[in-house]
Amino acid sequence: MGSVSKRLLASAGGAALTRLQSSLVKKSPDKVEQIGERLGRLFFRLGTRRRERAIANLSFGFPDMTLEDRTRMALRVFEHFGRTSADFLASKGRSKEDIEATTEIVGIEHIESALAGGKGVLLITGHFGNWERASAWLSLAGYPLSVIIRDADQKGVNQVVNDLRTESGTGVIPRGNSARQILEKLRANEIIGILPDQNAEDAFLPFFGKPAGTNLGAGVIQGRTGATVLPVYCVYLGNGRYKMVFCKQLKAQEGFETKGEGMLRAVNSWLEEVIREYPDQWLWFHDRWRNAREAGLL
Known about the structure:
globular; alpha/beta; single chain
């Protein structure tokens, strides 16, 4: 449910990514984690612009943190996303039972309650933790899930990544002209996975106390359809263990006239809360505040 795995590895191209995948699926989980963390450290060293952006963004979330501490935290962020990318590439052939053997799953009753409403579910997460495990488990467990994705620049990379997603039964809806498909699936009481935590132009809403460009689409769709907005996250606990949490449904904050704004304020607030609990598992190297900075708001 996202494009970070593609961005981390896309520079190698589809053929190299396929070779890496073929190698990883033969490795033990411990070895996959080690390789992923090494990839993350390599990206940290070579990706100067991304590294500097992560360190700068961390000052928004943790203004009292020293530069030295933010640099150490940024390294852990890169290691985490390297590990997450490797885990995703190694997931070919992974079963529901395989995921459950290493993952504590909490809050299934919230998914069941949301679907019982009959108006579909907007499943909200972020570029946080291991979101690809959450989508794979849902689909393998028989829940009707489609995710909104942003295509990578390279066709070969798209093929590798989306083949892994669809193998578990997850539907893939390219971002762009997706509104009709989303509405049809919600009318059929299905689940749409959305990651609304990247820089956008719709509105500037608070995120870690700073105005951040925010896409209002999920809130607009919820207002139009009455779908339940349900947050989920899957965090890494160490030693190959994960915890997947389906939270209670989100309610829009009140008092805002712009369509979708109240809901996205609630989404930003929820996401900020879980990031503060696991700060090294969010995508700090994404330029989340770029539009706000260019608009002179920071």
